[in-house]
Amino acid sequence: MSDNQLIHSFELGRKSFFRSRLFSLVVVIGLLAHNPAMAAPETARETIVRAILTTDNGQKRAIIGSLAGQGDEAIRELFTAWRQDSLFVYLAPDGTKIPVELTDDKDANGAQAAIRVDNGEPLKDAAGQPLRLVGTKLVAVEHDAKLRHTMRSIVDLLDLGSPLLAKRLRAIQTVGFTQKPDNLPVLQARSQIETDAEAKLALREAIALIQLADPSDTIKLKALDELRELHSSSSYDVIKTAQAKAVASAKPEVAAAAGAALAAIDHHKSVVKFFGTLFRGLSAGSILLVVALGLAITFGLMGVINMAHGEMITVGAYATYITQNVFGEGMNFTLPFVRIAIHLPGLHLTGWAYQLYFLAAIPIGFLSAALVGIALERSVIRFLYRRPLESLLATFGVSLILQQLFKLTFGSNNVNVDSPIYLSSNWTFFDITFDWSRIFVIGFAVVIVFGVWLALTKTPLGLLIRCVMQNRTMAACMGVRTERVNMLTFGLGSGLAGLAGVFVTQLGTVGPSMGQEYIVDSFMTVVVGGVGSIFGTVVSALGIGLADQSIQQILLNPVLGKILVLIAIILFLQWRPTGLFSARSRSLD
Amino acid sequence: MSSPDTGRFFRSRHMEFAVVGVFLALLTVIFPVLNAHGLLSDYMISLWGKYLCYALLALSVDLLWGYTGLLSLGQALFFSLGGYMFGMYLMLLIGPLGSYAKAGQNPAGLPDFMVFLGHTFLPPFWRPFHSFGFAVMMVFALPGLLALVFGFLAFRSRIKGVYFSILTQALTYGAMLLFFQNDFTMGGNNGFTDFKFILGHSLVDKIAGPATMRGLFMVTSVVVLLVSLGCYWLNGTKFGLVRQAIRDGENRVLFSGYATANYKLFVFVAAAIIAAVGGALFVPQAGIINPDQMTPEKSIEAVVWVAVGGRGTLIGPIIGAIGINALRSWATHAYPDSWLIILGALFLGVVLFLPGGVVSLPPKLMELWRRYRKSPDRS
Which residue, of A287, A355, A463, B214, is most buried by count of CB atoms within 10 Å of its CB? Predict the structure, then answer.
């Protein structure tokens, strides 16, 4: 509590000195408060007690008014009780008046539990037992229309002092937009003690908005200056109205200042939009990259047209779904055709342990998709290495079969995958919203691109993969077990698709046909980047992602943007038919 | 790219065409006669009419893939474009019989979906479609033009093989997204439906409807016959031989001094128009056209009809299109959950075990039989 209030309470206490012995105590506290070591600041509850025991209505309003800007939730609760006539004054056996709140249901005698207003504790008798009181036998605390009005305005300002930042910010904005000059002192008092930088900015804006409604031109100009400096887009409309008024009342300098403020906001908006688009484009490109990287290996390096690549993504996504359920309540499903019911027991984890399911799903998604991929390679694709166009047809058949199997196992509706806490919030910096999930995808894309690069260039397997992909027959002649390398390479590509599946659960829907959404884009990304070049895939994914987001911003129509990107890609391939970075070769086909 | 060695059932291509011709001619006459005498249901007529439209789509794929070695995944797009062009004419014929017009809420005589979307006047590019002649011309012109532009760009920069497939797939995908848009005034995801008339003949009337359907069936059957004739004739010309040489070794043909891009472009445009005609005939018989018909999956399915029937033959696509669609009609009722799995398994089975398609099966079996007869432990 500030010194002002203490002095205030001291004066009030002195005036009502003879009315109640309680006030002598307040006076003592007020006097003692000048010594900081002994300061026991009056709580909101105690202030309300004082207000209740004051008889003069004007005094009452003044005491209650002193609560403005405090964030104690007890104020809201007690004022509600006051207005609903549940506050009473209990006359203790020793003669002191104790204001109480009667709560809970009435028992057979009509008695209710009594809570002391001054500290929120149950009222006890001399023996320390909680007292139950009958409301009709007590003196009810009165209230009139003026008092109720004062209380309401205090409650309106209550959130200004809330310890929760989000609540406080909302309250500051609300107060600012009402543009009521009465609230100005409260805001100014608040800005004296506010420590949070964001709330401080919001207070400056709210104060400036209220000052903008001031009749004086100098104050208006100062407010507009402040708003121009703050360039907050939320005050745009208010400034616009002020500008229109200034023009109507022929005040050119105010209108000019408003115009300058609007221009500053516009500029700020376009900067924010640019960086927002850049961020969204990067994250869209990263998703594309994560999705297409597996294809860059199976299609780019191995030359297999795997139309079931999308279904590998779905495998990863469903693996995430199953992991989530195993961490939670467990799940039941029936394998189609063979009709084997499977029950996966749940670990019944809660809190942080449950939230970790997503991290566990990352290796599980990779491994399950890699296993499905290896099975596919062994059963179908190894017969088709010399017939790429027919691998397209066969794997499309596989894709249809897998989609139908997903549908029969998990149902044709989309399933729900929760966002773990660490991915579901966002971070606003300079008015640009950064979703954690998107930041995570960008970081993850960097990690797996680096990982794939390491695996391909720095490991013995990578060496074998590269040599088999360059010339299968020659590698076999040199004693490389090409069959095994093919299998592992395809497994790696499919596993990467599974990883992509784990991540798209956070960004899109999870259903039996979800893989189809990504398949055309993935192929385009690999073709544009240059078949066989991982680096090309990285560049083209980021390029396509950025182009897609920028065109969307301009056209405000995602589908049209997508169509334009497709046309741009077709035209791009006119210029570079083999993509951005293609392997140089003198061979004809 | 080399074609798989397809054991041929027919010794000569003349024999093959004779069989196809007789089959189609009989179909043209017998089905309508049976239907007129109540021996074949109206449903079967429209069903087989659709099969024949799909046969046209399959022939267009075969022309590209079977004979020229271009695996286009965009034939369903040309099929649908033809369907949409003709569908626009049929939509404008509904006029006062539409549900909004009946309720007196459609003074401009717009198609129902436009009224629903709040249009008050016909978009200018719709206006000429009041004319049957213009609509038929557009069935040829629009898909042909698109194929010409796209093919020119693709073949000029020597995009081939897998890249050509992926690009045509992307083209189809983009067009599908476009047609799903309501603002595109092509009916959005509902497409065109609820047709009433074609050239003054009712499509829905209890008595006149089946007769119109018979007529459409006969027209479709004759068109399939004519396209088959055209393919048969083309295969005998020098052009047809160069085209097959492109399939088997494009670089050699290129080095022999042939402008392969022009050959491919001609075939691509011709195939697009054949598919579009199939689509245009499909719309009045199926009674609906919507963007679901132009998904990349539909294109791949058409390729599978050809693969199953036997690519590089005349009869194969027709057998494949009719056979698989008949199988679909049966299986989607009998085993609705398993149909996609059956179709997928068919893809796999044909590619892995029967690269020449069904047509290559009889010679293979005969060969086995001959070996069995000659095997030493039997005598």
Answer: A287
Q: Is there a contact between A570 and B171 if contact means CB atoms under 8 Å apart?
A: yes
Q: Which of B1, B101, B73 is nearest to B301 (CA)?
A: B73
Is 0.90 topped by the overall pTM?
Answer: no
Cα(A520)–Cα(A498) distance, rounded to whole angstroms?
Answer: 17
Q: How far apart are the first and last CA of chain B?
A: 43
Q: Is the dihedral of CA A34, A40, A44, A47 positive or negative?
A: negative
Q: Which of A393, A519, A572 to mutate to test the interface with B (most CBs of B within 10 A)?
A: A393
DSSP string covering A234-248: GGHHHHHHHHHHHHH
Query: Which DSSP helix (H) or strand (E) runs through B105?
Result: none
Helix (H, G, I), strand (E, B) or coil at A139: strand
Q: Which of B159, B305, B341 would you mutate first to test chain A, the one with the most A CBs within 10 A? A: B341
- Which tens digits make up the pLDDT trace of A207-219? 777 777 777 777 7
Decide if A552 touches B, using CB distance below 8 A: no
**A182 burial class (0-12, 13-18, 19+ CB within 10 angstroms)?**
exposed
Query: Can you say whether the dihedral through the CA atoms of B233, B236, B240, B246 is positive or negative?
Result: positive
Type of residue at B325: N
- Answer for the pair A542, A285: CB distance below 8 angstroms, yes or no: yes
Contacts of A370 (CB under 8 A, 6+ apart): A491, A492, A494, A495, A498
Interval B165-190: pLDDT, tens: 888 988 898 899 889 888 888 888 88
Integer distance in angstroms from the first to the last C-alpha of chain A? Answer: 84
Task: Retrieve residue A227's tokens.
Answer: 């708003």
Residue of chain B minimizing CA distance to A385: B352
Q: Do A394 and B157 touch (CB under 8 A)?
A: no
**Residue B177 dihedral angles phi and psi, to the nearest 5°:** -60, -40
> What is the distance between the alpha carbons of residues B297 and B15, in angstroms, rounded to a whole number?
34
Contact A434, A519 (CB under 8 A): no
Contact A399 B180 (CB under 8 A): no
Residue of A389, A398, A521, A528 for testing the chain B interface, max B β-carbons within 10 Å: A389
d(CA B56, CA A259): 66
> What is the ipTM score, two decimals?
0.85
Asked if residues B165 and B176 have their Cβ atoms less than 8 Å apart, the reply is no
What would the DSSP string read from start to end of B5-22?
Answer: ----SSSSHHHHHHHHHH
- Integer Cα distance of A576 and A569 in angstroms: 10
A470 and A464 Cβ atoms separated by less than 8 Å: no
- By three-state DSSP, how is residue A130 classified? strand
Q: How close is the nearest chain A Cα to the Cα of B347, in Å?
A: 5
Spatial separation of the C-alpha atoms in residues A553 and A560, rounded to whole Å = 11
In chain B, alpha helices (H): 13-36, 42-61, 67-68, 75-94, 99-102, 112-116, 132-156, 162-180, 208-236, 238-255, 260-286, 296-309, 315-334, 339-353, 361-374
Angle of CA points A148, A152, A157, to nearest 5°: 150
Backbone angles phi, psi at A354, to 5 degrees: -70, -40
Tokens (6 digits) for A452: 């794939």
Distances (CA, A) of A307 to A373, A425, B92: 12, 35, 40
Chain B closest-CA separation from residue A380 CA (Å):
8
The band of A237, judged by pLDDT with boundaries at 50, 70 and 90, is confident
Q: Distance, in angstroms, between B297 CA and closest chain A CA?
A: 9
